[in-house]
Amino acid sequence: MPSACRRTFRTLREARLFARAMQSARHPIVAQMVVTRRCNLACAYCSEFDHASAPVPTADLLGRVDRLADLGTAIITLSGGEPLLHPGLEEVVARIRARGAMATLLTNGLLLTRDRILRLNRAGLDYLQISIDNVNPDSVSKKSLTLLDSRLADLAAIAEFQVTINSVVGACIGRPEDAYEVALRARALGFTSTVGVVHDSHGQLLPLRDDHRDVVDRILQLTPSFFSFAQFGHFQENIIRGVPNHWHCRAGGRFLYICENGLVHRCSQRRGLPAVPLDAYSAADLAREADRPKPCAPFCTVSCVHQVALLDMIRERPGETLAAMLEERKRRGPGFRTPMLVRLLSWAFLSPSRRKLSAGLALRALGLKGRVSEPRATSFRRVERRHGSPW
């Protein structure tokens, strides 16, 4: 399928994902699944890797994908360690797509080649994210722009999936200005750029110095995504200034972290809770963990969990949430014009007189009728069956 057609098809699938998230609160939106703990690097701040572990058997990963699909998971993210070290990675990506979920890959990018990019294209990968910590390698990290730039150029030339480059600030980052240079290079190549704050070993906030805060503000001026916590309630400002945020974390219900042993955890920084085998994880587990207050939430910097919570805030309080996001975006850029999609959503769904009719028409157009069914309780231990094409 030509790249333009693939992008259009992906946008339609994203719209369906959003509609399902608005329709039901009892299925996972994102699951992050570890395919190997082994990594080709040893970043000083990272606690999620080793140099010896064997990759998770491909058959086990395919079974876990099937179980996550049975639970209704919308996005499955493959992580590590370094997931490109897994020999069956493309097969797992293809299974994610065959089961109707969006496929995402988190990688340091150093093992990317043109051939590997083409293989990921064929498998149907939707998104790839690379975090770049500095311009030149140092004692903290080798995830450097100078080492990765040729691979970024290859991605810009031939990748048929969306690429996001995440730049990093925080206590262990020596030159915060590097984050801005990384963001500018990402934009020049046509990629999405984001900025992350380095957290401690428990996912908690390490307050930023003034020079780091200034860099974050400048990056956020580079037209960040509208649907981001950076655009809501000063969330990003609170993070970088060490001020607690008041929000409800849905980890364990709307966001799942599946370790290499096949256990479900709330997130990568809260391993051990609840640590239930994925094949035994039930609708009751999803509901309990989504509703449970998390004492770590006020100073949490795990952005993927924040994004999931934002969707539920839109579902529960659409008018208040969208209005606050628009106000925040206009504050950052006085010349900001509301995107056409947001204007359409506001017109269709925020007026009580139009909401019911518009919602019904939209759900039917996206192939969703009535309520999303509750997750099935079937085990993922089954005879492997043939699946159709991801396209």
Kindly describe this structure.
With 391 residues, this protein is an alpha/beta fold. It has one domain: TIM Barrel. It contains 13 helices and nine strands. It has a nine-stranded mixed β-sheet, sandwiched between helices. Helix 5 (145-158) links the parallel strand 4 and strand 5. Helix 1 (3-23) crosses helix 10 (303-316), helix 3 packs parallel to helix 4 (114-123) and helix 10 crosses helix 11. The longest helix is centred in the N-terminal third of the chain and has 21 residues, at 3-23. The chain is globular and about 55 Å long. The model is unreliable at 371-391 (pLDDT under 50).
Work out the helix count.
13
Biggest sheet, open or closed, and with what strands and sense? 9 strands, mixed
> How is the largest sheet built, in terms of strand order?
6-5-4-3-2-1-7-8-9
> Which range does the strand content fall in?
5-15%
> Under the CATH scheme, which architecture would be assigned?
Alpha-Beta Barrel
Mean pLDDT: 82
Q: Provide the structure class.
A: alpha/beta
CATH topology: TIM Barrel
Got a strand count? 9
Q: SSE order in H/E notation?
A: HEHEHEHEHEHEHHEEEHHHHH
Shape: globular
Report the CATH C-level class.
Alpha Beta
- Could you estimate the helical fraction of the residues in percent? 40-55%
Number of domains: 1
